[in-house]
Amino acid sequence: MFAGAVFIGIITDGEDAAGRDSRAVVSATPRTPGAAAAVGERRPVPTPDAAQRAAYLAALEEIDPGLAVHEERAIRRGRAVCDRLLNPEGRGNITRYTVRALSGGDARIDAAQARRVIKAVRAWCR
Description:
Elements: E1 10-11, E2 25-26, H1 35-39, H2 50-63, H3 71-86, H4 94-102, H5 111-122
Antiparallel strand pairs: 1-2
Helix pairs in contact: 2-5, 3-4, 3-5, 4-5
């Protein structure tokens, strides 16, 4: 008999043509009792408060003004980076991810700028 856990997750960091959040999160709960402990629990991703948000957007503006043009998108992308920081299991290099996640639209960033973004996210991502 097979006893195991199944977890399927799909997260996209995209927007539709009108700029609305089109990310989808799909997950399946573990099929066996106690499987969540075997898989590991994900840490919740915080949302920056008003002061943290202002500081984060100011940091993005310094890195590349295009990163802060669409504030809600900037916060969503920052939270996606935060998720990677808090829940890194099997998710690859955070710097490369940040370059991909934040480049496009109004900005293109390199690895050095991505490291600065990660530092700015760490200020509120705990």
